[in-house]
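U., I forgot to send this yesterday:
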Amino acid sequence: MDNDSSTSASRIDLQTAKRELLAKLLKKEGIDLHNSHKIYPRQGYNNTPLSFAQERLWFLDQLEPGNSVYNICRAQRLTGPLDLVILTQSINEIVRRHEILRTTFPCVAGVPSQVATPTFTLAIPVVNLQELPPSIQGAETSRIAVEEAQCTFNLAMGPLIRAKLLQLGEERHVLLLTTHQIVCDGWSIGVFFRELSNLYLAYSSGNGSRLEDLPIQYADFAAWQRQWLQGEVLETQISYWQKQLGHSLPTLGISTDGPRPAVQSFRGAREPVVLSEDLAKAVKILSQRAGVTPFMTLLAVFKTLLYRYTGQEDLLVGCPFAGRHHLETENLIGSFVNTLVLRTNLHGDPPFNELLSRIRDTCLGAYAHQDLPFEKLVMEFEVKRDLSRNPVFQAMFAFQNRSVSSLNLSGLTSEPIEVDTETSKFDFTLSLTDRGNDLAGFFEYNTDLFNRSTIERMIGHFRMLLEGILADSVKPISALTLLTEAERHQVLVKWNETQADYPKDSCIHELFEVQVERTPEAIAVQFEGKQLTYRELNNRANQVAHYLQGLGVGPEKLVGICVERSLEMVVGLLGVLKAGGAYVPLDPIYPTERLRFMLEDAQVSVLITQEKLVEDRGWRMEDGGPRETVVCVDRDWIAQQRDDNPNSAVASENLVYVIYTSGSAGQPKGVQIEHRALVNCLHSIAHRLGFTDRDVSLTVTTISFDIAALELFLPLIIGGKVVVARRDQAVDGRELASLLTNSSATALQATPSTWRLLIDAGWEGSPGFKILCGGEPMPKDLAEVLLTFGEVWNLYGPTESTIWSTAHKVEPSVGPVPIGRPIANTKIYILDSHLQPVPIGVHG
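Result:
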């Protein structure tokens, strides 16, 4: 398979001084690039087989008829007195010389065959655009060029070449030449234009053709290839590629802006790439010093870019090569191009010069075994077909020396016009041409997968990497600068300018007490038909606080709380805070051994629990200290305490809770959180998400997870209502949906798993319902469903940074659901595995 616009890339390293350099490199490795097997004209012209490249193109056309992705379209602006008769005569002489341009591909007895029509005259229609204003002519020229590029061919009926002339003025024309890749490749366009230049000059001078007769035709090569590539020759080629690609092939794991369609659409676009004269010179100097070709250097930069975007150390990139190392094929038109799959291991974060050495070895080995067509490789290795992506590799890199597609007609000036075919065979392709003074080309990309802005950033990152490499080629590839200065400032500084006022000198219980003064008779908390007003909740929490202070609880003292979900749970938590202490939540369903570890590790001085749990656990002194420090909330001791607000002497920099991690990565660890951190989080989330005193929040999370702190305390500091769900309700979709409806809840914070339970149970939300999703990545399909049920927020944050660090209001989009920007007074950095900032849209 070939990148149509870059297959002149096939000339890569096989011309002039660079061809000589490659030959020297190969000779040094004991490799002879030139095949000594001569190709002779075939005997007989009936039922000529297809070459391997043609066979695959034919098969793909059968699989998806009418696809223009394998069209090659070139446009040339011609200025001067053009003779249409001579132009037509010259083009038809080329068609006569190269039988492949007169060939069709019918199916004979179920097998594709190539059949050349003895005579064929190509007409060149003229489209008159002279009457259009100059400003309109350009747009109409582009429209017609794209239309030509996308107009499909019938491989069985033909013709598989067409030409069209656009007349813009008396001496201003645009020539459009379109072929199918089954009869032509990028190198062939160079052959076509070179012969057209010679023939036009000869006919304009009144002379006949001076072109030498062709030694063979393309069909001769196809027959020879089928006969030659078998037996020992085939085994040698396959053995090499088996070693290179025989085991599991990695798929390029690059982040996309849109979901990958089940069937590849090939819709594409291009963005231009221009690298300055200074960069081009520096690339050549570095290549000479390293004993490599510019292609190898630029490929190494491209692979470095992919590594930094994906973190993958095993990368596959396809590169088009001419497939014309037989002298008989150099001046033939046909589909010779072959794609070599270059696999590179970037393990160990190598310096760039070491990576360049690895790529040099890979390239030389591939050059020596380039006779195995990519199509044959796919068949031999039985590559599993995935219709959503290109087989074997998803990214291509193409490089060519000076353009070989120049057209020079006698008496006219000619200038190529870039034709964006609006197609892309691969996820993306970087194609560069050495124009002598600079390097230029384009980034072609699949528009189903990537936005234009993403590709523009990628081009900038390629340039940044190249500049860094040219400045210091011994630097590890992970340390090379990827972001531009503007991007670096944006992601490190601008997006972290989150300073905002908040009650930083207040504690959680103090904010609650302010709300008690405002709305003492409003319902604060509800559970199983029972409820407490703000005044009642405050009074009961005060009684707990006074009792705990009598046990010595104060600032920085840790109080364990192990109770079932209930009104008493909320009373106990607030009571600990009002006493000045910090709570350590203990889930009653945890194994006794885990609870014992947490109690001992935190050096808990007081444990709040329930009589039933004391009996079940059989707590002794070694578990929670002296028995008198085990406080049961379901006894009548609370009613005997004072109910005024106690003086706790606690400050905002004191601890509010210690949450223990799961221990999945080792021993559970206690995360210490201060009042001011929790106050900032709740204040920021309430402001960002628009919580008010009219909100009713349903809490479903165990207090052993920090998410519960937001569920419980955020409503209580703004005057809202908390509805506590039973443990069994929280894990039952039907029960939870019923509770949401019956409680008139307006907000729920839950994991994606819980939201799916609700959806499966038939819950349908309500207008303005606040859907808070966190704890797990939010799948795109879930987000789309939830958007029909209410206002959706995706929240992210590690326990160590206080519940949520970022928030994102989810909107309909084609891309993955982002985690959003940092909340107030919070900074976030998205880094790769080497702690380097990653670009926008790249996983870190």
